[in-house]
Amino acid sequence: MVIWGIILIVAGVAGFFMAHSMRRDLHALIGAETLKVAELGMFHSTAVEVSGPGGFRKVCEVIGAAEPGPNGMLVSELSKTPCVWHRHEVKRRYRHVRYDSDGRRHTSQRSEKVADLTSDQPILVRDETGAVLVHPSGLRSDAMEQVVSRFEPHNAGGGPSIFGFRLDNWNRDDTIGFEYKEWVVRPGVRLYVHGEASDQTGQLMFNRPQNGGPFIASTKTEEELRRNTTLLQKVFAFGGLAAMLGGLALVIVGVIQ
């Protein structure tokens, strides 16, 4: 009982940390200015005139349609879907064997992640006034459309292949098979982008804010994201409080007994 109480207390503390993170993200969304791409370009030009290139940073938001970046249209690895951005996930499903204290054998199915890879080429987001680059590194996105979800039984001839490389290290006797999932962002998808626009790389581009704030690309509106974030904050806050109180009660009862 004491152990379960401690687990609940730890979960409650984690809930409070998550609530604080949600609160920080909410304030970031509220405080950031939504700009046209041309307006962002004017801020950048003014900063370059004053202090030179490479020092411009501005946390803000833009809304526009996704377009291929400088490297052109991409093709997703699994479904070969034309897109501007894609992500793949592969999980290995395998048999887990354990023996209890009496030596009895127990077999169950488990899974482990083999690969979780995202294309790293910048994309363009274009509104009626122009286009700006968005780098996908560290980006939190709900704009992806799932185009693959399948399971393939284990093939003794080799492990899964992704991005052109065979993952033969996962070709094991206990392997049942591999789960493949793939998501893409097609050109033309409307995106709300929140992040830090900077010219540190030599060109104006959205990246993850240096202060650790949110970096988001979403098909939702800012108002929808605010409502969702507010709801999550309350869930984590009240859930964390309930877990902590329940954990303390269990610890107290366990100690008394």
Structure, explained:
This protein is an alpha+beta fold. The protein has one domain (34-220). It has 3 helices and 16 strands. The chain has helices at 2-31, 37-51, 222-256, and strands at 33-34, 57-67, 74-75, 82-83, 85-99, 105-118, 123-127, 130-134, 140-141, 145-153, 161-162, 165-166, 175-185, 190-198, 205-207, 216-218. The strands form 4 sheets. The chain has a 5-stranded mixed β-barrel. Strand 5 and strand 6 (105-118) form a beta hairpin. Helix 1 (2-31) runs antiparallel to helix 3. The longest helix is centred in the last third of the chain and has 35 residues, at 222-256. It is flat. The mean pLDDT is 87.
Number of helices: 3
Taken in chain order, the helices and strands follow as HEHEEEEEEEEEEEEEEEH
Which class do the helix and strand fractions yield? alpha+beta
Total count of domains:
1
Unreliable stretches, pLDDT < 50, 5 or more residues? Answer: none
Distance between the termini: 10 Å
- Give average pLDDT, whole number: 87
Alpha carbon gyration radius: 24 Å
Strand order of the largest sheet: 2-7-8-15-14
What is the number of strand segments? 16
Strand content: 35-45%
How is the biggest beta sheet arranged?
Answer: 5 strands, mixed, barrel
How much helical structure, as a percent, in the residues? 25-40%
Which term fits the overall shape? flat
Draw up the topology in text:
Layout: H1 2-31, E1 33-34, H2 37-51, E2 57-67, E3 74-75, E4 82-83, E5 85-99, E6 105-118, E7 123-127, E8 130-134, E9 140-141, E10 145-153, E11 161-162, E12 165-166, E13 175-185, E14 190-198, E15 205-207, E16 216-218, H3 222-256
Parallel strand pairs: 1-2, 8-15, 9-16
Antiparallel strand pairs: 2-7, 2-14, 3-4, 5-6, 5-13, 7-8, 10-13, 11-12, 14-15, 14-16
